[in-house]
Amino acid sequence: MSTTVCPEPAPADGRAAEDALVMRAQADPLLPRFHFTPPAGWMNDPNGLLQRDGLHHLFYQYNPEGPTHHRIHWGHAVSRDLLSWTDLPIALSPARPGEGPDDDGCWSGVAVVDDGRPALVYSANHGGRQAAALAVAADATDPLLIEWEKDPRNPLIAGPPGELPVTDFRDHCVWQESDGSWTQLMGAGTADRGGAVLRYTSTDLRQWTYRGPILVGSDWRGVPEDPWTASMWECPDLIALQPAAPDGTGGQARHALIFSAWHQGHPQETLAFVGDYSEGRFRPARLQRVDWGGRLCYAPQSYLDEAGRRIQFAWMPEARDERGVARAGWCGVMTVPRLLSADGDALAVEPVPELTRLRDRHEEIPQGAVDGARPASSICGGGLDIELELSLDACGYAEVVLDHAGDEPGSGERTVIRVDRGPEGCTIRVDPSHASHEPGVEARTVTMPVRTRGDADDPVRLRVILDRSTLEVFSDRRALSARVYPTDPESTRVVVTGARARVGAGSVWTMRSTRRAGRRLRP
Fold first, then answer.
1. Where are the domains of the chain?
2. What residues does 303 pair with on adjacent strands?
3. What pLDDT is recorded for position 456?
4. Is omega for the bond preceding 155 within 30 degrees of 0, making it cis?
5. CA distances to 10, 12, 281, 282, 491 from 212, in Å
């Protein structure tokens, strides 16, 4: 027996309220136009990522009842190009109170294919505790995978093992081994050893045996400048990296263990151990940030597409306060899809090339020495894609200013992306402290080091992707995410300022919207 999860309709008396919530969210000028968001309400972690028969499936943590984290469902959307998404019916809904192990929410998980049938492994939330649960596609031949059946034996892993003093236990990474057996990793926190990733094995995806941790926080002996790994490791994602040699030879394949550092109810940032995984243990060689924006890029998940690329999405939380979120009617954005790969002994992150298909109006950024402020473009837009090459003399700097004041550059709201060349190398700093007049907005400056020298022979290459309230900066195959909330995002244009700096090749494009009309909270 199994329980079929059919699309959950809105109560008849609630449809008007839901439609009003969607209208309010879609009318918000700060709602991104080419990043994925739900129709309205709350969204957090990406879940169940897979590509099947050409369709990319994006499941996500979703509350259709309002922009708050409450009774989480699994939303579902599909795309053929990673750019335009079609909403599908909600895939998983919490059980009625007292009628299932997920009656307080269907939390984060992954998608796998079991003997040709897609399956979802997820965290069933009940009474503040999570357990591992399973749902399978009701019709494996349905290309849209609309209906899902929860396994009647749920939860399949009822709680953490007794061998460790586990304080938190949730989120999944599951794969099938070459012999047909299954391995499942779960994120955890311990009372005395920090975060952990626990390993289970199964022959049938349903009966699981605990095999111990692949890594515990206290096992890592890093250096003082390493990031803090916090008390719990959420959303573990173990991936294989290609050999470092460009021709694919002469180097040992490595692995990255990606996780989100969480501490006492608060997300911190997304990190990755790079090292080797074998015989059920992960042996880390280094620890790095996956994104330098702190909590504003969190809970990522990745998958291999049908071309063999490793694609990642992550959740961008809001930096508005609760009142601002309530007024907007929506909360949470996905990053642009990103490509993950090996960069020597590090994990590299960059946007997928498909994003360039959204480029529209174009202007070249004037080349030459930077002395004071000068407009880099006359075109304005809330969605911009900027590529810029900067050469800096010793102690030189350049600022790429996203001037949200339109016809009055240098005044009013602005976001500053500053590139500095110091004795120890170049850094990129994003300062959103003047980006918004809206009260209650968090505006923390964040910094990302880059390994280029910054001189004429090794310039800093900058990619900036702005989508109304989302900002993603890429350089040196590293990423930095931020949130900005200007009053009139469509007035944004680019200004460049600096000293002892030179602009090389550069361009600004406006970006077309992929936003669909007529969306519903419960398609």
1. 1-152, 160-297+335-351, 357-511
2. 311
3. 94
4. yes
5. 43, 49, 9, 12, 55
Please, is 193 exposed, middle or buried when counting C-beta atoms within 10 Å of its C-beta (0-12, 13-18, 19+)? Answer: middle
**Which pLDDT belongs to residue 14?**
80
Q: Which fold has domain 1-152?
A: Tachylectin-2; Chain A (2.115.10)
- Give the per-residue pLDDT at 372: 76
Q: Are strands 330-331 and 41-52 parallel, antiparallel or unpaired?
A: parallel
- E strand intervals along 355-382: 359-364, 368-370, 374-375
Of 427, 431, 411, the closest CA to residue 419 belongs to 427
202-236 pLDDT per residue, tens:
999 999 999 999 999 999 988 999 999 999 999 99
Q: Which residues of the chain have pLDDT under 50?
A: 1, 244-245, 248-251
CA distance 197 to 505: 45
Q: What's the pLDDT score for residue 1?
A: 40
What pLDDT shows up at residue 282? Answer: 98
Burial of 331 (0-12, 13-18, 19+ CB in 10 A): buried
**Residue whose C-alpha is closest to residue 511's, from 461, 466, 474:** 466
86, 77 Cβ separation under 8 angstroms: yes
- Cβ-contact 185, 254 below 8 angstroms: no
User: Counting beta carbons within 10 angstroms of the beta carbon of residue 162, is it exposed (0 to 12), middle (13 to 18) or buried (19 or more)?
Assistant: exposed
Quick one: tokens of 338? 């990103």
The rounded distance, in Å, linking the Cα atoms of 259 and 271 is 6
Select 357-511's CATH number: 2.60.120.560, 3.40.50.1980, 3.40.50.2000, 3.40.190.10.
2.60.120.560
Residues 147-184: tens digit of each pLDDT: 999 999 999 999 999 999 999 999 999 999 999 999 99
pLDDT at residue 249, rounded to an integer? 45
Side-chain-side CA neighbours of 325 within 13 Å: the count stands at 18
Residue at token pair 């090459």: 389
Query: Tokens 């989302």 correspond to what residue?
Result: 470
Residue 186's contacts (CB-CB under 8 Å, 6 or more residues apart) are 132, 157, 169, 170, 171, 172, 173, 197, 198, 200, 236
pLDDT (0 to 100) of residue 244: 44
Q: Where are the beta strands (DSSP E) in 204-316?
A: 209-216, 232-241, 254-263, 266-278, 281-289, 298-304, 310-316
